[in-house]
């Protein structure tokens, strides 16, 4: 039994050795300053526990999963957990300085998506974009799907965010768009784990808001990565863009063809989203150079990450070149710290 187990484990490692290495665009870290801010605020609003994390735990996870480089980001709620403006600016700065130090210590292993204050703080956000992208040379910025409290909040298409999109557009920046909790986080059924069900819908809402407000058209140089294969967006895009009359306006002054065109400008990461049905759908709907690997370390526990990686490794991409693109090639074209963008 034990010997059989070892043989299976060795077979798995050697099978992995034949597969391309990965660049992980959805890899979370928990800096000490961020953990302290979360704890001070009573933890994640949806009650999700903050997992242990060290740079070493990331490196070990990467070695186990054939990940050559991870682009670090904090997960939701991110810096907006800090309610006061000055505190939010200070925390974003502290996280970004720490990220740059980590990258300096492990240049081949880590890049980072910069943290920003709440986007409701336009001035603070603009100055952190300038510092993080121009001075620290981050790979991009982390945006959350919605900013503000309850119904006094905005998805990413809101007009007040235009100056921020404009600053990102002028820098050809990458924006990693991560879901946060839905407006009403009351646990109607405690059995429904919100990050599993509602986070994907938040991504869909933010992306459709960006399409409807023409953010994707007006700021075409920003490369936006939607987490988790776009949440539920690929499944729903036909729902909002289909008519027998191609010139009929379906949403915010736009035709179905225009909506689908905007949808295809997003990038999609594969964090917790590599079932063959999901991959079939993505490869059918979006340009193949817009699909990138992601893991969701350390919020997804190792057995989940291994399961999703097994699905990805078992998927028939048809041609080896396409597997290379999805595992690392597409991300390398996108991310400055890979040295190939
Ligand atoms: C978005 O762009 C479309 C097509 O270019 C236009 O018809 C529509 O009015 C615009 N909508 C907004 C909200 O800017």
From TrEMBL:
Its EC number is 4.1.1.52. Keywords: Decarboxylase, Lyase, Metal-binding, Signal, Zinc. Residues 1-17 form the signal peptide. Gene3D superfamilies: Metal-dependent hydrolases (3.20.20.140). Residues 23-336 form the Amidohydrolase-related domain. It comes from the Eukaryota. InterPro entries: ACMSD, Amidohydro-rel, Metal_Hydrolase. It catalyses: 6-methylsalicylate + H(+) = 3-methylphenol + CO2. Pfam families: Amidohydro_2. Belongs to the metallo-dependent hydrolases superfamily. ACMSD family. This is 6-methylsalicylate decarboxylase. It comes from Aspergillus keveii. The lineage of its organism: Eukaryota, Fungi, Dikarya, Ascomycota, Pezizomycotina.
């Amino acid at each position: 039994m034990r010997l059989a187990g070892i043989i299976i484990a060795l077979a798995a490692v050697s099978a992995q050795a034949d597969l391309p290495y990965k660049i992980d665009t959805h890899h979370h870290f928990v800096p000490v300053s961020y953990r302290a801010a979360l704890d001070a605020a009573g933890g994640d609003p949806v009650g999700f526990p903050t997992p242990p994390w060290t740079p070493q735990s990331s490196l070990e996870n990467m070695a186990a999963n054939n990940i050559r480089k991870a682009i670090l980001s904090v997960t939701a709620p991110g810096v907006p957990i800090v309610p006061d403006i000055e505190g939010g600016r200070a925390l974003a700065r502290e996280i970004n300085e720490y990220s740059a130090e980590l990258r300096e210590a492990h240049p081949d292993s880590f890049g980072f998506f910069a943290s920003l204050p709440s986007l409701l703080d336009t001035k603070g956000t603009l100055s952190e974009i300038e510092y993080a992208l121009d001075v620290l040379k981050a790979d991009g910025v982390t945006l959350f799907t919605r900013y503000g409290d309850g119904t006094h909040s905005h998805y990413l298409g809101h007009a007040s965010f235009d100056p921020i999109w404009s600053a990102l557009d002028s820098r050809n920046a990458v924006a990693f768009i991560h879901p946060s909790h839905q407006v009403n986080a009351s646990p109607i059924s405690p059995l429904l784990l919100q990050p599993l069900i509602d986070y994907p819908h938040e991504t869909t809402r933010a992306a459709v808001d960006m399409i409807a407000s023409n953010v994707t058209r007006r700021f075409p140089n920003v490369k936006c990565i939607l987490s988790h294969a776009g949440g539920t967006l690929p499944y729903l895009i036909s729902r909002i863009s289909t008519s027998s009359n191609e010139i009929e306006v379906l949403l915010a002054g736009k035709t179905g063809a225009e909506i689908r065109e905007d949808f295809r400008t997003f990038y999609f990461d594969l964090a917790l989203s590599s079932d063959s049905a999901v991959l079939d759908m993505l490869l059918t709907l979006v340009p193949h150079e817009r699909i990138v690997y992601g893991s969701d370390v350390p919020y997804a526990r190792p057995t989940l990450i291994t399961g999703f990686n097994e699905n990805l490794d078992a998927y028939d991409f048809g041609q080896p070149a396409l597997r290379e693109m999805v595992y690392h090639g597409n991300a390398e074209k996108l991310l400055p710290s890979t040295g190939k963008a």
